[in-house]
Amino acid sequence: MFTFQGDYKRRAQVNLGGAKHEDRAGLLKKAQEERKAREEKRRRELAAMKIQVSILLHSSSIMSDLQGFWRRRKEVALTKDTLRKEWDVLISEGDESVGTWFKATRLFPFFYDKEYDEVRAIHLLRWLVRSKNDVDIWLRNDVNFSMVLIRLMALLLKSVGSIKFQSEYV
Questions:
Q1: Which one in 2, 57, 111, 153 has a CA-CA gap of 20 to 30 Å to 129?
Q2: Can you tell me the distance from the alpha carbon of 108 to that of 42, in angstroms, rounded to the nearest whole number?
Q3: DSSP string, 57-99
């Protein structure tokens, strides 16, 4: 619509009905607070993005470390199972010779786990008690065997609470 001033656009009409009139200082303070709030929001979002990027970059190395850890744990468990089976075969052959038990005694600490090897530990301890003369000879002649026996006893003493000894001598 044309006006007498030569403008063909309509002027924006501002409705001031019911509007509160704030003073200049109040408006400036409100604008400053809003500006600070926006800046704080930007700062938090930027910090969150930095954390997410660092996690994303390091997650691949963490995952490979965890995979390596579990791979090694599985390998150790498989090796212990292999040694445990070898020990069972050695003992089950029925050979009661000193050499067999000597080898079995040396092998035992490498796979011993108190949850799985209660029966094996009792079996070995009974043989050591029965064959105390042979054990005494080993201890005199082989310095390394005394270390094996000390290690074996330390392992068994740590788990003595979980092993239920049912002795035929009691």
A1: 111
A2: 63
A3: HHHHHHHHHHHHHHHHHHHHHHHHHHHHHHHHHHHHT----HH
* Angle at 23 (CA atoms; ends 22, 25), nearest 5 degrees: 125
Here the tokens at position 108 are: 């035992």
Q: Hey, where are the domains in the chain?
A: 21-79, 94-170
* pTM value surpassing 0.90: no
- Tens digits of residue pLDDT in 69-118: 889 999 999 999 999 999 899 888 777 777 888 888 888 888 888 888 88
AA identity, residue 26? G
Residue-wise pLDDT tens digits, 20-59: 667 888 888 989 999 999 999 999 999 988 888 777 777 7
